[in-house]
Amino acid sequence: MSGVLIACLLFAACGVLAFPRRSPRNEGRGRRNVGALLRPLSRGRPLKTDPHEIPLFVHQLTGLLQAGRTPSQLWGDALSVHGGSTGTAFSSGVKPALWSAHQAAQLGLSVPEVLREAATRSRDAALRTLWKDLAACLEVAERSGAPLAAVLARYAVQRESQLDSDAARDTALAGPRATVRLLSWLPLFGFAVGYLIGVDPLAVLLGSVPGVAALSAGCVLTIMGRLWSSRLVRTAEGDPI
Hints:
Elements: H1 2-17, H2 27-38, H3 53-66, H4 71-82, H5 89-107, H6 111-121, H7 125-144, H8 148-184, H9 186-196, H10 201-206, H11 209-237
Helix pairs in contact: 1-9, 3-4, 3-8, 4-5, 5-6, 6-7, 7-8, 8-11
């Protein structure tokens, strides 16, 4: 009876731990659909910016410029769009930097410097990158004479391409991640099968010197395989090891 109970517990552990988890890069997609429902419950906790909102924001800036707004008027118009009291989490995150950029443009100060200062003060990694990149786009347009709308449009397309490549990489790595988890928990599955057929695997492994040697070698190889597989997945993801 105890063997059957242990087998059931092992089966449950295998099922829970082998269940595929969602990649952090794709979490933002699911939150967009239910964000309006969860937002009242998450007040007081800093929300991370959805990376998919950044190209949309840059496209908004591009649209304002193409509609005839000057670079000095751009930030005030963007602030009027995202400065409402009932704005989204993204609007709340960009509002301080937009206000500072608008004030700098009105006073004739350097908007790129203001954006870089906003990047250093932001606690959101996505917004830090956004403000630094926008400052670089402004400087490129000012020094080269290229239309700012064209520079921002190319930047938005580049960000969209990066997000698409990240999503494709996550989809391609879903199988290897699930395989790593499955192979890591196969020994527990073997223990469960042993108990179900009436064998005591622990007694066999711990009751003799060859059994202990086999158990030790199996544990070492399992840990090494898990570490090596995780290393390969991280390398494919592009994360530093």
